[in-house]
Design goal:
Blueprint (H helix, E strand, L loop, with lengths): L3 H21 L11 H22 L4 H13 L12 H15 L4 H14 L8 H6 L3 H12 L4 H13 L4 H10 L1 H9 L6 H24 L11
Helix pairs in contact: 1-2, 1-3, 2-3, 2-7, 2-11, 3-5, 3-7, 4-5, 5-7, 7-11, 8-10
The protein binds fe (ii) ion (FE2) (2 copies).
């Protein structure tokens, strides 16, 4: 089983890698996102915590905990070094190099890197049920843990922070949250869950997003003249 010290080392490696590569990256979008490395690190920690909740719920073995924790820590390490379409495989290669250097055994490295590569899959061609059949068990947990960060309070907060940056008012947030990318993504991804625990967490978080939107609609008026009820 992977020790807490080894997990700490992986965490430090990932954090440093993200911060260093964001600093030197020539990706255009980073110019308007000066805190992208911190944001990605925050997301990584969220994904680790989500994965742990699923592992707990599924009664996973010590070996599963080791694999999924390592995969969750490493899963987005290449974010600033390559095109998003290939970041799953690029991360898997970086992870393999790192884990080999640290002396982890071959089957552990293989399972971790497979899960990491799988999380980079572009969804859309296959229905969720079929998509799940393409993934290893660890890959499924990682994908679920990653998606969970798009479904609930974390996703709402990210969307609101973005709207706040644009100096939007409440009624505009009301419109844009309902019609925006965050809700669209949450609605699309909410069905890509396969474990009992993952499904439960997904439903809980997506319900929260819907509840939040419903309350916003109820409480926030359009900034025009009022319409009087009879
Ligand atoms: Fe990713
Ligand atoms: Fe991710």
């Amino acid at each position: 089983m992977i020790s807490h010290n080894q997990l700490d080392e992986i965490a430090k490696f990932v954090k440093n890698y993200l911060f260093e590569t964001a600093e030197t990256s020539d990706q255009e979008w980073l110019k308007s996102n000066p805190r992208a490395a911190e944001h990605r690190w925050q997301h990584t920690l969220n994904v680790v915590a989500n994965a742990e909740q699923i592992l707990e719920g599924e009664g996973a073995t010590d070996e599963d905990w080791s694999i999924v924790r390592a995969a969750a820590l490493l899963h987005d390490v290449s974010m600033f070094t390559c095109d998003h379409a290939v970041h799953g495989q690029v991360t898997a290669d970086i992870a393999a190099d790192y884990l080999e250097n640290k002396g982890f055994d071959k089957s552990f490295i293989q399972t971790v890197t497979q899960a990491v590569a799988e999380h980079g899959t572009d969804f859309g061609d296959l229905p969720p049920e079929e998509q799940g059949k393409q993934f290893s068990w660890a890959g499924k947990i990682l994908v679920e843990a990653d998606i969970l960060d798009k479904l609930g309070a974390s996703a709402v907060t990210s969307a609101l922070l973005y709207l706040g940056d644009q100096k939007k008012l409440n009624f505009e947030a009301n419109r844009e949250l309902f019609n925006g990318l965050a809700y669209e993504r949450a609605t699309f991804f909410k069905d890509y869950f396969w474990t009992v625990s993952g499904k439960k967490m997904a439903q809980h978080r997506y319900d929260f997003f819907n509840e939040y939107l419903a309350r916003l609609k109820e409480e926030v008026m359009e900034c025009d003249l009022p319409e009087w009820k009879e």
